[in-house]
Each structure stands twice: as structure tokens, then as C-alpha cells.
Amino acid sequence: MRRRRPAFSRMCYLVTLVTILSLCATGARAGEVNLNGELGAEYDSNVHWSDSAGAGGPPHVGSPLGRVVLALSAADRIGAHQDVAFSVLGAGKAFGTEAARNENVAVVETSGAWRVALGQRTRLGINGGYYEAIQAGTAAERELSGVARDFRSLAPTLRLARAVGDSGTLALAAGYRWFVYKPLRIYDFRAPAMAVDYRLAWETADGAADWEVGAVAGVELREFAGTRLVREAGCASGSCAAVPDQDSNSRHADQFFAGRLDITRIGQVLLGVGYAVQWNRSNSYSETLLRHAGTLRLTTPMPLGLYLATRIELVFVSYPDHAAFPAGPSGQSRTTIEDENRSQLRAELSRKITTQLQLVLRYSLYINAIGQNSYQRQTATLSLAFAIE
């Protein structure tokens, strides 16, 4: 059975999606300055994201924790044909239980964009994104890597967008990503990235709702620092061991393709559906995968001034290679940095206290894909969120 390293794989999965989608980001409206934050208490039933007992991973540990998020974004127009946008986010989680404190984490994310109009319907932009997760880790992990574990991602992008028809936008983007995986540097990579994006928006005839359709496809061509893995010699079938290639010049390389389609109706009730597919074509044994992810979103007003927001994400991943892996520095099986097969249900109930403050109650459930019942994690959060414009 494949197992994940605690807290890393989902972050890498999300950052991969965000990196490809950010190739087509549009930023905030000109003249805006927004400050948002959230301070809350949470309980996590499985802080190490472990499989069920007996699966060979760390034992289940539940713990209360405190969490904080602070984000600042700004945008403005420079002259008649240029505008800039910038955002910075800082977040952190600190666990109360001693056995969970190696999962304490801080996250920093920044992005910026400069855009210039090349004509009435065409815009050229230079975007940049930086993301770093710094996790405490265990003493053994810190001794092995010399730094706090987790990863760093840096991605500059050039984007060309053109209006199509009355309400559509077509964009082409090209960029580069530097990725550092601190605990195991063989997974460091550099990758040129390309994407194409189409957006269409229109209003219903009665003006009661807006519709948005978005489609994006992209690829990262990853060149890793480590040597590729090959099938163990003499193993003809079944779960063969993955071992490093003896040719020191044979580097691990992936072609990571991703596509996504979203349809959203925005009115008194927001309803959205989406489908994403990811295919990692690798020259390294065990690293090839195909991931499907379907999402359903609903936001609706409730009695007593409450708002309910729900999100369901069903994920299924298939691996052509059924490889056996040695244990990594955390004691879990080392597989791939993209090893993520968790589906999610998230429900959030919120109520405004003032125009700038709201109280949020959030519940999340994470499980394996349908038919695989070895994993479960639940979180419950009570927080105070603010927004200042």
C-alpha cells in the first residue's frame, strides 16, 4: 500500500494545481487594498495523516491546535495602459499535544503581477509566485536534512491574454518553476511550464445570476536532482522493488500534464462543478500516475443571517507500477512527491458579527478514494475572520 509523508503530499498537490492555474491568474481590480485574516482553534483527529492502524505508518495522534492566517492584497493602475497587483499571505499552525508538535508549520506565499495593454483587447503580464512551507519535523528529519522539512516553490510567468467576443478571454502563458523539497533533495526540480486558459462569463436574461465557465490545460517538464528509479533486476511481475539506476547520468524526469474545467452559477445561491485530470508521465519507475478529481461547491444563505458553504472533492489516482519502496527518514514508505489519493468533504457555517467580522465554524472529512477505507482524518475549526477593504 502506498503511504504519504505527513502533511507534504497534499500541499505539493495543491501547489502544483495553483502553479499551473496561476499561469492564467488575473489579480485584483485596480485601486483595491484588502486585508484579510483568521484566528481560530481547531481539533485534528489525525495530525500525521496516517493510514489505519497496522498499515505500517505512525500511530494516529489527535490534537487541539491554534491557527492564524493573515493576507494583504493590493492593486492599482499606473497610467492609462498599465496596472500592478501584489499579495502576501502568512499562516501558521501550532499543536497542543506533544506528539503532534513536529507538525507545527508556517506558510508564506507571495505573488505579484504587472500588466500592460497592447491594444484594446490584448494584455501582456509578468507574474511571479513564491510559496514556502516550513514544518518543524522530527529530530531525525532535522538531523538528516539540516533544515525544517517541507518545501519551497518559486515560479515567474509571462502571460498574454486577449478578449474573445463580448465576454470571453483566451490566454497563453509560459513560465519556469524552481522547487526545493527540503527533507529529500533528490526531489528538487526545475521545470519550464506552459498553459492555455479560456474564460467565458455572461449574465442571465433576468439579471438574477451570472455564469462563468473556465477551462485550463498546462504542463510542467520537470528535471529532478536525483537519479531515476528502475525495476529491481530479476523481478518479472508483481510488486517489484524500485531501486536507483546505476547510471549516474540517468536523471529522474517527469512530464506533468494537468487540465481543469469549471462551471459556476453565481446568484443568491452559488453552485459550481469542476473536473480536473492530472497525468504524470515519468521515466522513473513508480512515479507515473493518473489522477482524476471532481468537485461540487454550494454556497447559500440560511435563516438567522447564517451562510453555508460546502465543497466535496472526490479524488481517484491510479498507478501503473506496483512498486515496493524502502522506508524514508520519517519511517514511512518513500514513494512520490505527487502521491495523493484523498477525497474531501468540507462544510462551513458563518455569520457576520459586523461588516468586517464574521464567526466561522468549519468541519472537514478526508478519506481514501471510493473502495479504499484505510485512511480517515477529521478536523473541526471555530475561528474569527475579518476583512478590511
Summarize the structure.
By secondary structure, the chain is mostly beta strands. 6% of the residues lie in helices and 58% in strands. The strands form two sheets. Strands 1-2-3-4-5-6-7-8-9-12-13-14-15-16-17-18 form a 16-stranded antiparallel barrel. A two-stranded antiparallel sheet has the order 10-11.
Secondary-structure-based class equals mainly beta
The N- to C-terminal Cα distance equals: 48 Å
CATH architecture: Beta Barrel
Under CATH at level 1, the class stands as Mainly Beta
Enter the CATH topology name: Porin
Q: On the 0-100 scale, what is the average pLDDT?
A: 84
Order of strands in the sheet with the most strands? Answer: 1-2-3-4-5-6-7-8-9-12-13-14-15-16-17-18
The outline comes out as globular
Q: List unreliable stretches of 5+ residues.
A: 1-11, 17-28, 327-334
Provide the β-strand percentage band.
over 45%
Radius of gyration, taken over Cα atoms and rounded to an integer in Å? 22 Å
DSSP helix fraction = under 10%
Strand-and-helix sequence, N→C?
A: HEEEEEHEEEEEEEEEEEEE
Q: Please summarize the sheet with the most strands.
A: 16 strands, antiparallel, barrel
Number of strand elements: 18
Determine the number of helices (DSSP H or I, runs of at least 4 residues). Answer: 2
Number of domains: 1
Would you mind describing this structure in some detail?
The chain has one domain (8-388): Porin, CATH 2.40.160. Helices cover 6% and strands 58% of the residues. The protein has 2 helices and 18 strands. It has helices spanning 8-22, 139-145; strands spanning 33-44, 63-78, 82-95, 105-117, 122-135, 151-164, 168-181, 189-203, 210-227, 229-231, 242-244, 251-266, 270-282, 289-301, 306-318, 342-352, 357-368, 376-388. A 16-stranded antiparallel barrel has the order 1-2-3-4-5-6-7-8-9-12-13-14-15-16-17-18. The model is unreliable at 1-11, 17-28 and 327-334 (pLDDT under 50).
